[in-house]
Design brief:
6 helices, alpha+beta, 188 residues, PH-domain like, single chain, binds zinc ion, 4-stranded antiparallel β-sheet
Length: 188
Amino acid sequence: MKCEICGAELKKEGNICKKCYAQYVKDEEIKSDIKNNKNVLLRLHRKYIPFYQLTRYGDYYVLALIIVFSLLAQKLYLYTFLAIFLIMIIFYSVLAYNKNKAIKTTCTFYDKRVVWKYKDNIKSLDYSNIDDVKYYQNFFQKKFHLADVQFRPKKGSYIMNGFEIKNVPNFNETWDKICDIIISKREN
Ligand SMILES: [Zn+2]
């Protein structure tokens, strides 16, 4: 007999192996937590602040200005106008995309694990599997009380097996709450 999911040889009678069963139970637990919104200790939202977003594209502003001024210098007014128009559209699209993504991204601390969610994409880490939680804050994020928080797993890289939530608001206050939960849950 082989496991129907991973193909591992089964020692006992059945359809799936222990490992896959444990994963199945966990996935169901996560789904039910999300659905019922139960056992929520803390929920982090990714904040969208237009003024902060505007600080992020320095290189592109320079590039846009170079394009516009070089067209102007050649007296290509129609192209200058078109270039400005295009740049505005691109810029607006980037901001709209970021806003949409920010509003829909959350990180929720449940009883057993923390779950990152963006639309139907879900990543989770059991507290017992968290190696470390770190935050990053650039100059402007500091001004806006924002920070990126990374959840790093004991096994694997944080990009593949962990996750990050960007621009968590009211950061100083929130960071204390995050630490309290992680510390108390890891001790259990
Ligand atoms: Zn299996």
